[in-house]
Design brief:
The mean pLDDT is 93. The two termini are 31 Å apart. The chain is of the alpha/beta class. It has a domain at 28-190 and 239-248: Rossmann fold (3-Layer(aba) Sandwich). Strands 1, 2, 3, 4, 5, 6, 7, 8 and 9 form a 9-stranded mixed β-sheet that branches. It has helices at residues 3-13, 31-41, 58-63, 77-90, 124-130, 148-154, 167-177, 197-205, 219-229, and strands spanning 23-26, 44-52, 67-74, 95-99, 112-118, 131-142, 180-194, 230-231, 234-248. A hairpin with a 2-residue loop joins β8 (230-231) and β9 (234-248).
Length: 249
Amino acid sequence: MSKDFYDKVAGKFGNYNTPAKFVREYFEGDPEDIFKQKLLEVGSPNKVVLDVGCADGRFTLSIASNFKRVVAIDTSEGMLAAAKRNQKELGIGNIDFVNHNVHAMTFAPNSFDVVYSRRGPTDYPSFKRILKPGGYFLDIDIGEKDTQGIKEIFGRGQNYGKWNESVLIKDKEEIRKEDFEVIYAKEFEYNEYYPSYKDLDIFLQGVPLFEDYDTVKDKRYLEEYIKKYQSKKGINLPRHRVVTVSIRK
């Protein structure tokens, strides 16, 4: 997704966090919590870590105390500005928020002990180059079935039509090509329930599910989706995530 989209979101909401209300129903645990647990397990006060696609930095700030230093990169100036504001408010000093493109990284070889990406961009050859031997790469990716129903009704969307292309298998194959050993790989499906049309509409304005989402022009599609996926718990939006942990050989 383009940096212009994230700049727009940062300008509208102030960060990467819309005021939409929703609740989540997990079947095998919260993949975000599991990802964070895996990251903290490989953390230590003497390690340097790279966050690829840090957005507004909230997650980065939550884990920084477990590492010596964090370099957090993004290409959206709006998101980086939000991250630096959050950093200043919390008084956390061991993070460098930097405008840097993952596909044109200039970090020296063997610079990092850990690299992680939370639904951000990936460049496995670059990760191999900048990670120390024995270093870790952790990723939480968007699964192929994520929000499939709403994409089908809208007729477009992030990874549209790739319902049968396993992200878990693809991620493992691609990272193994770069001589990483995959030590953990699991996919998670769960549900989000939105209490109202307004909440789902606000949510869609702040995420790259439809980068061109328009509240007015897409109203009929959203109404059709809600009619089909309304339940006693709210408007159901099925989600799908993939978590992997790998070691550079």
